[in-house]
């Protein structure tokens, strides 16, 4: 069982997401604690995967610091949390308080996952016409932007078109989020490739701060919100993805029926090994 600092026993979260709890942390600040839980198919499993929360937090911090020249993010430096939360500080971030924008900004550099399924059926991804002849994990001529709604916990996100996003948020905000998302993806894709990783696709979340500035929030470029594989592996028929795809495949193999299960230790070990490999590769100087 995960050890808990007193703060989390004495304070209730303002909001609990699939794997993150968010706490009030003073004026214009929040504390985000990432759990060791895993979600798949919009279902959150109670059984925990040791070290997963700290890995996700450290990967997010790495990328927030690497990309702040592209767009402001909500991460605040606070060295005191290691003393205040001796047991769990590796899983915690102090951030600027923001109002989330209820759209997930998805960028795809390669045709994979559900995008490949739609392409096979309709010749397009979202409402974007894609040239004929692409195979699984082929690279797009340019990264494409395919947003979705950000659903409440327990509900499913829904794919929307960029036109739908314009209607929801307005053209100026939508264009800003789209352009920054593609710029973020392109930067991380290039950096990851130098480290031996291929970033196939990813998603971002943005929010408004108290001055109505748009900031990058939540997590970025973690294996929970991104699809990675080894650069040399993209042309292989059976790819070992460094994301939750392995776990999704396992659930399908056991004919999982939307119920809580005890995740076998060998499955946990494979998941955490892949997450650790991403962290180690991107931190490799």
Shape: globular
| Domain count | 2
Structural class: alpha+beta
N-to-C order of helices and strands = HEEEEEHEHEEEHEEEEHHEEEHH
Biggest sheet, open or closed, and with what strands and sense? 7 strands, antiparallel
Instruction: Count the E strands.
Output: 16
Q: Give the proportion of residues in helices.
A: 25-40%
Task: Give the helix tally.
Answer: 8
CATH top level of the largest domain is: Alpha Beta
What percentage of the residues does DSSP assign to strands (E)? 15-25%
Quaternary: single chain
Explain what you see.
The protein contains eight helices and 16 strands. By secondary structure, it is an alpha+beta fold. It has two domains: 6-96, Phosphorylase Kinase, domain 1 (2-Layer Sandwich); 101-205 and 219-282, 2-Layer Sandwich (D-amino Acid Aminotransferase, Chain A, domain 1). Helix 2 (52-67) runs parallel beside helix 8 and helix 5 packs across helix 6 (171-194). The longest helix is centred in the middle third of the chain and has 24 residues, at 171-194. It is globular and about 55 Å long.
What topology emerges from the helices and strands here?
Layout: H1 6-10, E1 15-16, E2 20-24, E3 29-34, E4 38-40, E5 43-45, H2 52-67, E6 75-76, H3 81-84, E7 92-96, E8 99-100, E9 103-110, H4 113-122, E10 124-125, E11 128-129, E12 139-145, E13 148-149, H5 162-169, H6 171-194, E14 197-208, E15 214-217, E16 226-230, H7 245-253, H8 265-282
Antiparallel strand pairs: 1-2, 2-3, 3-7, 4-5, 6-7, 8-14, 9-12, 9-13, 9-14, 10-11, 14-15, 14-16
Helix pairs in contact: 2-8, 5-6
């Amino acid at each position: 069982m995960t050890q808990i600092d007193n703060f989390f026993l004495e304070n209730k979260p303002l909001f609990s997401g699939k794997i993150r709890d968010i706490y009030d942390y003073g004026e214009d600040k929040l504390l985000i604690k990432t759990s060791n839980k895993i979600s798949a198919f919009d279902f959150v499993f109670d059984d925990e995967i040791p070290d997963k929360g700290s890995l996700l937090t450290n990967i997010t911090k790495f990328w927030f610091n690497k990309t702040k020249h592209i767009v402001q993010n909500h991460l605040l430096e606070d060295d005191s949390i290691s003393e205040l939360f001796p047991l769990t500080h590796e899983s915690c971030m102090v951030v600027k308080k923001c109002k989330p924008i209820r759209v997930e900004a998805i960028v795809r550099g390669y045709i994979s996952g559900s995008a490949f399924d739609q392409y096979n059926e309709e010749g397009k991804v979202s409402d974007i016409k894609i040239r004929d002849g692409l195979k699984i994990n082929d690279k797009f001529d340019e990264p494409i932007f395919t947003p979705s709604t950000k659903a409440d916990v327990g509900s499913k996100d829904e794919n929307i078109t960029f036109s739908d996003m314009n209607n929801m948020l307005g053209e100026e905000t939508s264009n800003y989020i789209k352009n920054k998302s593609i710029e973020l993806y392109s930067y991380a894709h290039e950096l990851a490739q130098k480290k031996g990783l291929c970033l196939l696709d990813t998603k971002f979340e943005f929010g408004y701060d108290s001055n109505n500035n748009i900031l990058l929030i939540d997590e970025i470029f973690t294996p929970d919100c991104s699809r990675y594989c080894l650069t040399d592996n993209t042309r292989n028929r059976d790819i070992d993805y460094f994301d939750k795809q392995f776990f999704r495949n396992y659930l399908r193999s056991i004919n999982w029926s939307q119920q809580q299960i005890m995740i076998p230790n060998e499955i946990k070990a494979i998941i955490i090994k892949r997450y650790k490999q991403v962290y180690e590769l991107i931190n490799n100087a």
